Amino acid sequence: MSEVTTLRTADEVRRHLFATGRGLSRDHMMQSYDLYAELQRGIKTEGVQIAMDIHYGDHERQVLDVHMPAGSKGKKLPVVMFFHGGGFISGHKNVKKGAFYGNVGDYFAKHGIICCNGTYRYAPEVTWPDGARDIGHAVEWARKHIAEYGGDPDAIVVMGHSSGGTHVGTYALHKDVQPPEGTIKGAIIMSGQCRPDVENAPGDRASPYYGADKSKFLAMSAIANLGPVKTPVYVMLAEGDSQPFLKAGFDMGQALLERDGVAPWFRIIPGHGHMSEILSVNTEDTSVGRDMLDFVKEVTGK
Q1: Coil, strand, or helix at residue 302?
Q2: What is the pLDDT of residues 13-52, one digit of tens each?
């Protein structure tokens, strides 16, 4: 029997993945999905209701699911809007037969928070900053309709992982894209790379989104183009993130500190890699989720 087939707990899976690779190779990513999917399928979701495939725009990928605590309608619960990764060119809100990224929605709903789990348009069909604009379209939908599900339209936090985190960071912070003050209460940027400039240039996978002209990268950087609206931000990184993600995260923290005079929420999650940090949410491993709950509570006052 192989070592992999004997892994039974979230801690065992996390330790195995951290020890066997910290990059973004396809094999390691697929193993991460497979191992955590086995764990997620055994987790009960009693008390969570899901409204599936709601369109926030006309495009087939402008769609989201609403995860809500049972009996939430008529209440004014805080709202998290989550957007998955996929290197700007792929991904979906529901993969591995719904194990991901419904795990994020279920986790928040179990803790009394409405969660919209959304997908967005991909490159090369769209280019910068259309991914961030899709985050804005989804937020506009939520501000109009989330009360129907028991959410408070004035208590929205946006969250994204990897390329989804980049879109969230661009939407929340870039001077050319960010919404008016009060539209959102906070942003959680989990391993997002919000600095596509020459010094930290995106790889070939991201080039369909940013384009090939490196002279334009600096103008696309949320870090280099912080807007005037000082939305509270939580920068989350995995210890096993690759250098470009870590550098962009540290640079984001430094830029926000220099602008605001106070440090943003900032954390490196020990023992986790780029994929395990998000795939582990809603397992018995609470090392990622508990701080997100605290951040949402603090910035929404709920």
Answers
A1: coil
A2: 999 999 887 667 888 888 999 999 999 988 988 899 999 9
Per-residue CA distances from 227 to 174, 209, 221, 236, 258 (Å): 5, 22, 11, 20, 13
DSSP letter (8 states) at residue 100: B
Residue 244 confidence class, pLDDT cut points 50, 70, 90: confident
- Cross-strand pairs, 236: 190, 267
Answering whether pTM is above 0.70, one says yes
Indicate the DSSP class of residue 185: S
Per the structure block, which two tokens stand in for 176? 């050319």
| Three-point CA angle 293, 297, 298, nearest 5° | 120
Q: What is the mean pLDDT of residues 87-96?
A: 94
- Which pLDDT tens digit goes with each residue over 63-81? 999 999 999 999 999 999 9
Asked if 150 and 142 touch (Cβ cutoff 8 Å), the reply is no
For residue 301, CA distances in Å to 79, 186, 191 come to 12, 11, 25
- Tell which residue, 97, 163, 96, has the closest CA to residue 130: 163
Q: Quick: pLDDT tens for 189-237.
A: 999 999 887 555 555 566 889 988 888 889 999 999 999 999 999 999 9
> What count of Cα atoms within 13 Å lies in the side-chain half-sphere of residue 52?
5
Concatenating the DSSP letter of every residue in 9-62 gives: SHHHHHHHHHHH--S--HHHHHHHHHHHHHHHHTS--TTEEEEEEEESSSSTT-
Residues in the chain: 302
Residue 135 makes CB contacts below 8 A (sequence gap 6+) with 81, 83, 120, 158, 160, 167, 168, 170, 171
Coil, strand or helix: which one is 89?
coil
Bond into 180 cis (ω within 30): no
What is the β-pairing status of strands 63-69 and 48-55?
antiparallel
